[in-house]
Design brief:
single chain; five-stranded parallel beta sheet; 42% helix; elongated
Protein backbone atom coordinates (compact mmCIF):
# COMPACT_ATOMS: atom_id res chain seq x y z
CA UNK A 1 0.00 0.00 0.00
CA UNK A 2 1.33 3.40 -1.01
CA UNK A 3 1.02 7.01 0.11
CA UNK A 4 0.20 9.41 -2.72
CA UNK A 5 2.03 12.75 -2.67
CA UNK A 6 0.43 15.47 -4.82
CA UNK A 7 3.05 18.11 -4.03
CA UNK A 8 4.78 19.72 -7.04
CA UNK A 9 8.33 18.90 -8.06
CA UNK A 10 10.98 19.32 -6.65
CA UNK A 11 9.53 19.48 -3.13
CA UNK A 12 7.73 16.18 -3.67
CA UNK A 13 11.08 14.36 -3.87
CA UNK A 14 12.08 15.48 -0.37
CA UNK A 15 8.64 14.51 0.93
CA UNK A 16 8.94 11.08 -0.67
CA UNK A 17 12.37 10.56 0.85
CA UNK A 18 11.05 11.42 4.32
CA UNK A 19 8.08 9.09 3.92
CA UNK A 20 10.28 6.22 2.75
CA UNK A 21 12.50 6.77 5.79
CA UNK A 22 9.37 6.21 7.87
CA UNK A 23 8.76 2.91 6.12
CA UNK A 24 6.12 3.93 3.58
CA UNK A 25 5.84 3.10 -0.10
CA UNK A 26 5.29 6.31 -2.10
CA UNK A 27 3.65 7.30 -5.37
CA UNK A 28 4.17 10.79 -6.80
CA UNK A 29 1.52 12.72 -8.71
CA UNK A 30 2.62 16.37 -8.93
CA UNK A 31 -0.66 17.99 -9.94
CA UNK A 32 0.79 21.49 -10.40
CA UNK A 33 3.74 22.44 -12.57
CA UNK A 34 6.06 25.28 -11.61
CA UNK A 35 6.50 27.98 -14.29
CA UNK A 36 8.73 30.99 -13.47
CA UNK A 37 7.64 34.45 -14.60
CA UNK A 38 10.36 36.89 -15.64
CA UNK A 39 10.96 39.53 -12.97
CA UNK A 40 10.56 43.07 -14.28
CA UNK A 41 10.56 45.62 -11.47
CA UNK A 42 9.22 48.84 -12.94
CA UNK A 43 8.18 50.39 -9.63
CA UNK A 44 11.60 51.99 -8.94
CA UNK A 45 10.77 51.63 -5.25
CA UNK A 46 13.42 51.69 -2.53
CA UNK A 47 12.59 48.49 -0.68
CA UNK A 48 13.05 47.99 3.04
CA UNK A 49 12.28 44.28 3.08
CA UNK A 50 10.87 41.31 1.20
CA UNK A 51 7.95 39.00 1.99
CA UNK A 52 7.63 35.51 0.52
CA UNK A 53 4.87 32.92 0.94
CA UNK A 54 6.40 30.09 -1.10
CA UNK A 55 9.81 28.62 -1.80
CA UNK A 56 8.81 28.70 -5.46
CA UNK A 57 9.07 32.50 -5.44
CA UNK A 58 12.69 32.17 -4.33
CA UNK A 59 13.40 29.58 -7.02
CA UNK A 60 11.89 31.86 -9.64
CA UNK A 61 14.04 34.89 -8.84
CA UNK A 62 17.22 33.05 -7.81
CA UNK A 63 18.88 33.35 -11.27
CA UNK A 64 18.37 37.15 -11.16
CA UNK A 65 19.27 37.83 -7.54
CA UNK A 66 22.72 39.29 -8.18
CA UNK A 67 21.33 41.70 -10.77
CA UNK A 68 18.35 42.64 -8.59
CA UNK A 69 20.50 43.47 -5.53
CA UNK A 70 17.87 42.12 -3.11
CA UNK A 71 19.76 39.57 -1.05
CA UNK A 72 20.92 42.02 1.60
CA UNK A 73 17.38 43.06 2.50
CA UNK A 74 15.59 41.38 5.43
CA UNK A 75 13.35 38.62 4.04
CA UNK A 76 10.20 37.49 5.84
CA UNK A 77 9.43 33.85 4.99
CA UNK A 78 6.09 32.17 5.62
CA UNK A 79 7.74 29.10 7.16
CA UNK A 80 10.97 27.19 7.62
CA UNK A 81 10.83 25.47 4.21
CA UNK A 82 10.64 28.82 2.41
CA UNK A 83 13.26 30.26 4.77
CA UNK A 84 15.68 27.44 3.89
CA UNK A 85 15.23 28.17 0.18
CA UNK A 86 15.94 31.86 0.85
CA UNK A 87 19.12 31.08 2.78
CA UNK A 88 20.28 28.72 0.05
CA UNK A 89 19.71 31.50 -2.49
CA UNK A 90 21.97 33.84 -0.53
CA UNK A 91 19.64 35.97 1.59
CA UNK A 92 21.58 37.06 4.66
CA UNK A 93 18.75 38.02 7.02
CA UNK A 94 15.79 35.62 7.00
CA UNK A 95 12.93 35.99 9.50
CA UNK A 96 10.63 32.98 9.79
CA UNK A 97 6.88 33.11 10.47
CA UNK A 98 4.64 30.34 11.78
CA UNK A 99 3.69 28.64 8.54
CA UNK A 100 0.78 30.57 7.02
CA UNK A 101 0.01 34.00 5.59
CA UNK A 102 -1.65 35.25 8.79
CA UNK A 103 1.44 34.39 10.81
CA UNK A 104 3.61 36.10 8.18
CA UNK A 105 1.50 39.27 8.37
CA UNK A 106 1.82 39.28 12.16
CA UNK A 107 5.57 38.69 11.97
CA UNK A 108 6.01 41.69 9.68
CA UNK A 109 3.96 43.87 12.03
CA UNK A 110 5.99 42.67 15.03
CA UNK A 111 9.18 43.61 13.20
CA UNK A 112 8.29 47.28 13.60
CA UNK A 113 8.25 46.89 17.39
CA UNK A 114 11.54 44.99 17.12
CA UNK A 115 12.95 47.86 15.01
CA UNK A 116 13.76 45.56 12.06
CA UNK A 117 11.42 47.68 9.94
CA UNK A 118 10.10 51.21 10.29
CA UNK A 119 6.45 52.19 10.10
CA UNK A 120 5.33 52.76 6.51
CA UNK A 121 8.21 50.64 5.18
CA UNK A 122 8.10 49.61 1.52
CA UNK A 123 8.00 45.84 1.09
CA UNK A 124 8.50 43.73 -2.02
CA UNK A 125 6.10 40.80 -2.11
CA UNK A 126 7.46 38.02 -4.33
CA UNK A 127 4.22 36.23 -5.13
CA UNK A 128 2.60 33.54 -7.22
CA UNK A 129 0.06 34.31 -9.93
CA UNK A 130 -2.82 32.90 -7.86
CA UNK A 131 -3.13 34.31 -4.35
CA UNK A 132 -5.49 32.76 -1.80
CA UNK A 133 -5.14 35.76 0.52
CA UNK A 134 -4.62 39.49 -0.03
CA UNK A 135 -1.53 39.74 2.14
CA UNK A 136 -0.42 42.93 0.42
CA UNK A 137 -3.77 44.56 1.13
CA UNK A 138 -3.74 43.48 4.77
CA UNK A 139 -0.28 44.93 5.31
CA UNK A 140 -1.24 48.02 3.36
CA UNK A 141 -4.09 48.59 5.82
CA UNK A 142 -1.47 48.58 8.58
CA UNK A 143 0.52 51.37 6.92
CA UNK A 144 3.04 49.41 4.86
CA UNK A 145 3.60 50.10 1.19
CA UNK A 146 3.55 46.67 -0.48
CA UNK A 147 4.69 46.20 -4.07
CA UNK A 148 3.50 42.81 -5.34
CA UNK A 149 5.54 41.18 -8.10
CA UNK A 150 4.33 37.95 -9.70
CA UNK A 151 7.36 35.69 -10.03
CA UNK A 152 5.83 32.30 -10.85
CA UNK A 153 2.66 30.42 -11.66
CA UNK A 154 1.58 26.87 -10.91
CA UNK A 155 -0.15 25.31 -13.91
CA UNK A 156 -2.54 22.38 -13.29
CA UNK A 157 -1.49 18.99 -14.64
CA UNK A 158 -4.55 17.45 -16.30
CA UNK A 159 -3.56 13.76 -16.12
CA UNK A 160 -2.48 11.54 -13.26
CA UNK A 161 0.44 9.15 -13.80
CA UNK A 162 -0.69 5.75 -15.06
CA UNK A 163 0.64 3.92 -11.99
CA UNK A 164 -1.45 6.20 -9.78
CA UNK A 165 -4.66 5.45 -11.70
CA UNK A 166 -3.85 1.75 -11.50
CA UNK A 167 -3.15 2.14 -7.78
CA UNK A 168 -6.58 3.65 -7.18
CA UNK A 169 -8.27 0.96 -9.30
CA UNK A 170 -6.51 -1.81 -7.35
CA UNK A 171 -7.11 -0.14 -3.95
CA UNK A 172 -3.35 0.03 -3.53
CA UNK A 173 -3.22 3.64 -2.25
CA UNK A 174 -4.02 4.11 1.43
CA UNK A 175 -3.88 7.91 1.83
CA UNK A 176 -3.28 11.15 -0.10
CA UNK A 177 -1.24 14.14 1.11
CA UNK A 178 -2.41 17.64 0.12
CA UNK A 179 -0.38 20.84 0.55
CA UNK A 180 -2.47 23.67 -0.94
CA UNK A 181 -5.99 24.57 -2.09
CA UNK A 182 -4.84 24.82 -5.70
CA UNK A 183 -3.15 21.44 -5.68
CA UNK A 184 -6.21 19.87 -4.03
CA UNK A 185 -8.44 21.29 -6.76
CA UNK A 186 -6.05 20.17 -9.47
CA UNK A 187 -5.96 16.66 -7.96
CA UNK A 188 -9.75 16.48 -7.98
CA UNK A 189 -9.98 17.67 -11.59
CA UNK A 190 -7.36 15.15 -12.71
CA UNK A 191 -9.02 12.32 -10.78
CA UNK A 192 -12.38 13.15 -12.38
CA UNK A 193 -10.78 13.29 -15.81
CA UNK A 194 -9.25 9.85 -15.30
CA UNK A 195 -12.48 8.37 -13.92
CA UNK A 196 -10.97 7.48 -10.51
CA UNK A 197 -12.59 10.17 -8.37
CA UNK A 198 -14.71 7.77 -6.29
CA UNK A 199 -11.73 5.59 -5.40
CA UNK A 200 -9.53 8.64 -4.82
CA UNK A 201 -11.94 10.20 -2.33
CA UNK A 202 -12.72 6.95 -0.49
CA UNK A 203 -9.42 6.98 1.41
CA UNK A 204 -7.96 9.41 4.00
CA UNK A 205 -7.11 12.86 2.67
CA UNK A 206 -4.40 14.40 4.87
CA UNK A 207 -4.27 18.17 4.52
CA UNK A 208 -1.76 20.82 5.57
CA UNK A 209 -4.47 23.24 6.72
CA UNK A 210 -8.21 23.64 7.19
CA UNK A 211 -8.29 25.79 4.06
CA UNK A 212 -6.99 22.86 2.02
CA UNK A 213 -9.33 20.42 3.73
CA UNK A 214 -12.39 22.45 2.72
CA UNK A 215 -11.76 21.69 -0.95
CA UNK A 216 -11.81 17.93 -0.30
CA UNK A 217 -14.88 18.06 1.92
CA UNK A 218 -16.79 20.05 -0.69
CA UNK A 219 -15.93 17.34 -3.21
CA UNK A 220 -17.46 14.64 -1.00
CA UNK A 221 -14.46 13.19 0.83
CA UNK A 222 -15.47 11.90 4.26
CA UNK A 223 -12.06 10.99 5.69
CA UNK A 224 -10.42 14.42 5.77
CA UNK A 225 -7.75 15.06 8.39
CA UNK A 226 -5.96 18.34 9.08
CA UNK A 227 -2.44 18.82 10.43
CA UNK A 228 -2.24 20.42 13.87
CA UNK A 229 0.28 22.93 12.48
CA UNK A 230 0.89 23.99 8.87
CA UNK A 231 4.16 22.10 8.52
CA UNK A 232 5.18 18.77 7.06
CA UNK A 233 6.09 17.04 10.32
CA UNK A 234 2.59 17.74 11.63
CA UNK A 235 1.16 16.47 8.35
CA UNK A 236 3.11 13.23 8.72
CA UNK A 237 1.73 12.84 12.25
CA UNK A 238 -1.76 13.29 10.81
CA UNK A 239 -1.01 10.61 8.23
CA UNK A 240 0.12 8.15 10.90
CA UNK A 241 -3.04 8.85 12.88
CA UNK A 242 -5.16 8.18 9.80
CA UNK A 243 -3.42 4.89 9.11
CA UNK A 244 -3.77 3.74 12.71
CA UNK A 245 -7.48 4.49 12.55
CA UNK A 246 -7.89 2.43 9.37
CA UNK A 247 -6.13 -0.52 11.00
CA UNK A 248 -8.13 -0.33 14.23
Amino acid sequence: MSILVTRPHPDNEATAENLRARGHLVLLAPVLKFEPVAFHDESEADYDGIIVTSANAIRAVAPQLQDLDLSQLPLFAVGEHTAAAARDAGFAEVIVAGGDAAALRDKVMQSVRAKVLKKKSTLLYLAGADLSRDLGGELGAEGFNVVTQTTYRMAPVKLLPREVCEGFAAHGIEAVLHYSRRSARAFLDAARGEGVEISALAIPQCCLSETVAGVLREAGATQVLVAAMPDENALFETLERALRTRLA
